[in-house]
Amino acid sequence: MKGIDIKRFVIFFIPLLLFARINPFEPVITPENIKVKNPTYFNKIKIYLPSDARVLKKIVFVYQTLDSDVKTKEVSIDKAIDFHYPIIITHKNVKYPIKVLSFATFKLYIKNKKLFFATKDKLLRVFFLVKPFRLVLDFKRNVDFLTIQKILKNSFVKKVVVGAHSGFYRVVVYFDAKYSYKIKKDINGVLVELR
To answer: Given pLDDT bands bounded at 50, 70 and 90, which one contains residue 66?
Structure first.
């Protein structure tokens, strides 16, 4: 009987040991080294169509989202063209005018996809919420005031809401779309850079 148990052990468990990894927590697939580069913005391109082109039916844009999904957008044209002349696609970056919002505990400067919170108060935490996309910043200070809401026009920032809580105040910044962001802190305040 013992001889049969040993044979079963050898038959069932030895093959398992042969396929076992030294470290079971090590991933099976090793990620590739990916270098993240700052994006260079598209400005202008000229496209010459072949000599047999007479009607431009549509243009298809293939783009990558913030989440790295690749999507397409078709634009119907259906107009006659002269192949001798190029099709020119341009992209102009919008330069938003600087906006300054004053609150009881800080000043907020908004310009060119950057926000600067001028305050000496300590930043406790930062997080974002979606639908709608908004950035939440909590600053340490014992204050008591009614919730303040400021709506902006002609800006990538749609509104700013500031409310007092026990031991801190919360700033919620609503944006026109989803962005990635980077936070920098110094003695003069907090800088938020969006991409």
So the answer is: confident
Are 115 and 182 members of one domain? yes
% of the chain surpassing 70 pLDDT = 80
Same domain, 114 and 156: yes
> For 147-190, what is each residue's pLDDT tens digit?
999 999 888 999 999 999 999 999 999 999 999 999 999 889 99
Residue 149, CA distances (Å) to 42, 43, 83, 113 in order: 35, 36, 54, 20
Cα separation of 117 and 127, whole Å? 16
Task: Count the neighbouring beta carbons within 10 Å of the beta carbon of residue 190.
Answer: 22
Token pair recorded at residue 75? 């634009």
Amino acid letter, 186: D
Partners of residue 126 on adjacent β-strands? 137
- 87/58 Cα distance (integer angstroms): 12
Q: Which two tokens stand for residue 100?
A: 């300054």
Give me the mean pLDDT over the 95-122 stretch.
92
Residue 108 lies in a domain: yes
Q: Mean pLDDT, to the nearest integer, of 63-73?
A: 89
pLDDT of residue 24: 46
Structural domain count, the chain: 2
113 plus 187 within the same structural domain:
yes
Residue 164's domain comprises 99-194
In a domain, 36, yes or no: no
